[in-house]
Amino acid sequence: MATSVFQETVRQFVLSKEQVQKIIDGLTEELVEGLSTTDPKNITQQPSYITRLPTGKETGLYLAIDMGGTNLRTAAVHLLGDGQVGVTMEKHEITHELKTGTGEAMFDWIADCTASLLKNVALDMGNADLHMGVTFSFALHQTAINRGKVLAMGKGFDLSDVMGHDLKDLMEGGFRRKGVPVVVSAIINDTVGTLVSHAYVSPSTKIGVILATGTNAAYIERASDVSKYTGPACDQMILNTEWDAMGKASYLPQTKYDKEIDAVSLVPGFQEFEKMVSGLYMGELVRLTLVDLIERRGILEVLDGKVPESLKDRLVFKTLFMSTIESDSSADHSAIDRVFKTSFDIEGLTSEDRAHIFELIHTVGKRSAVMTAAACAALLQKASGASVNLDNANEITTIGIDGSVFEKYPHFAHKMMEAMTDILGKDRASRVRLELARDGGCIGAALVAMVAQSGGAV
Predict the structure, then answer these.
(1) Do 26 and 128 sit in the same domain of this protein?
(2) What does the sequence similarity comment in the record state about its family (predicted)?
(3) Cα 238 to the center of its chain, rounded Å
């Protein structure tokens, strides 16, 4: 009985070809809709105002800032040509006091951090202004390559006098007050940074993806198809898809556990795709499933149907635990005993329990890989004819992927590639490369600053 309950439950996370195709079709429909919509509630398909990728030959020294939810990274990026870079980087924690203070205090602090970097690299340009690219991992209504109005920030930020203001003006205000000779030449999203920076290293890169706590993607689209773009005429445009905000229950294969995660989230019905694939939620999916299985006596019969207090709090089963367990290749999955004893004070697991827990974790992880592959396939399909041609046997298309889930989760890249082969067919999939991309925020920002400052097509 217990085994049948378990198998019936885990089977919900195994996707059929039909379900995968529905995801591709649904996301493609939302990608197309995002090209034209002017609804302020629809934040997808944001024009980056970047109209070309680097060639890998660019050289020069540019400053960069990567501002995320936890840390601020400042960097001096030396573009050396031939896809080579030298980076001097400093990392600074953004404290709760800064996050909830005034905008002026925040941007003065950013200027101080930049001054620290300049001192560290002994950079003195005399009276010449230094050009900086900024990666801003928050919602922004971009109006030019170096301008954008700050929208809702989230991630614990509650700054006064920032919302609705132009980020370039806010940044440069801090630099002026602190006497730091820096001009903001470019502002980009972290996913756009991933695409641009990896294209410098691998010129065949046409898509950038982030798969970490959250997920997002950027790609190259025909400018003529982006009807909501009102900037200078151009042939193509890098778009920040904000695919994290995509996903509708009508086509996503949600289990009751997915629906529960969505229901108790800050904004139910929003970011439903992200809630099924990203690092913040994978462990919680496993926890909810375990709790349900324990109550239905489908697993861990030693608990006699009673869920321990250690498993009752949201997000206590980390995706890191999944990674640790899938990393253990031993026949008896001994890592499961260690994780459950150390983190949840649960002992007495049988060999069947360990096999079942491993199967559950493997299946949830694989579903994330398959759904991410489906989303990439939707982008490849949308970009076909614009920047991608999978029917040309001599052309390779690279997808640069940054983030802890892709980099550190065991066999994730392999699972994605298997799914891409199932979706695209062996021949077309053989022309796609999935490559790890790193430091996209700083290197990408520096590259775009270079393109903007040199008068390139932006």
Answers:
(1) no
(2) Belongs to the hexokinase family.
(3) 16
